[in-house]
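Q: I'm writing up a methods section and want to include an example of the input and output format. Could you take the sequence below and give the corresponding predicted structure tokens, formatted cleanly so I can copy it straight into the document?
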Amino acid sequence: MPAPKVFANARGNYHITAFHTSQPYDPRPDPTKPDGGVDPSLPPSQRRLPSDEEWANELETMRRVVARTPVPLLRVSCVQPQTSSGSHTTHEP
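A: Here is the clean output for your methods example:
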């Protein structure tokens, strides 16, 4: 398995991205295959769900990816607290 890549973003582009290998509304029983282990021409509601073995393989794959990913050093550039009304102020550290 190739090592995961970590990308540095400019301060103005900071964001967090969570990658999902399968979603309940769009099952992909085997995310290691380009087609997700299903016939992609079928609507998601007709695709099969992952087997116990496929779930275990996906979990083990994610564990290996996390274990091989370097721990990033994060520096806070600003904090933008929001009120329930949606207004906010920026506080520089």
